[in-house]
Write the structure tokens for this entry.
Amino acid sequence: MQATPSSGDARLRTIIDRLADGVLIVASTGEVRFANPAAEALFGRTRDELREAVLGLPLVAGETVEIDVVRRGQAPRVAELRVVELDDWEGQPALLVSLRDVTDRRDAEEQRLRAESETARRREAEVAARRARFLSQVSATLAGSLEPSATLARLARLAVPELGDWCVIDLRESDEWLRRVAAVHHNREKEPLAAILAERYSPRPNDPFPAAEAVRTGRAVLYSPLDDDTLVQITRDAQHRQLIRALGTRAAMAVPLVARGETLGAMTFGCGSGEYGAEHVALAQDFAARAALAVSNARLYEQAQQASKAKSEFLAVMSHELRTPLNAILGYSDLLDAGIHGEMSEEQREQLGRVTANARDLLHIVDEILTFSRIESGTERAHSERTDLREVIQQVAQRMEPAARRKELEFQVRLSEKPALVETDAPKV
């Protein structure tokens, strides 16, 4: 639209002077030809100062832009600038420049954006704190037990409603089967439905279930939203689909339980309102990683316990087999020493004594092996009694003296004439 005020139209000038928006008439060469009082207030200059000044802005008719208005001795303002072409102003073509002060609006918008940004940061901090508290609870639960099934059942209870309305956990039994170890719902009235889901629909690795796919691929599986066509694809039959809907499922996700490079099972979550996003998947994966490591540690502990038990059983059998011939050697040595088969010379008796001493050493070693085995299994106990330490030292000396002689070492034992009585387990000392 074009306006064509005449230079003598005083009424039009009066209307322009009364406008709340600043108005400048600018010649095609850029000089200001006219300014109304609102423009004077906006620029902080008088009409005479503005007249003949060069505006210094690119002016394009029909466009609306925001500009910063520099003011003499005052804070700058923000103005919305519009340009309209005039066919004639005082006999020459000109541009009518309208300047609306939008500083307050700009300030309000910036305040709104800052408030939104602060709200977003606060929300992110709250989410991070909530996630940290949740994972802390998970860690505490995992630290309290080395029994995988009981621990996972507690974790499933902890997962709702943080990660969904219901949660099921499956552990990999073999390449052919997954065993469902937990199924809980946030609404206790729907717990029986979750139990049916666990009892009737434990997945096999080749099933289309989200849990089975997560185990096969080792990646998170997300159905958000869970539409009817997808539900048909990932369930076994119509009753299965009806059960999933009865649990109130509008979105589902499954994440694998992976630890030390091995996929141990999967966790599946479902929610009845809203949808799952990347942040939910990330939290579920962190949750599953901690749970998987706990399951792996529990299995390693169980294997270690079994290995320790097997070792203890082996040592018990071995010691029995060794003690039998050693006791026979000691028995025959006692018979020879008693002269049952005739008198022996001093040299023979000395040699027999060495045989007896070494046999007793071997028997002592066997007893020590059994003692260490009992200590590891937690069944060894100290049997304290009043003991003269001189007797203990004499027994040690009897075992040490032959070894010292073989090394051509001088071996001396000095004992107190008075008893040195203590309460202790003498054989262990």
User: Anything to note?
Assistant: The mean pLDDT is 84. DSSP finds twelve helices and twelve strands in the chain. The first strand starts at residue 22 and ends at 27. Residues 361 and 399 are 7 Å apart (CA to CA).
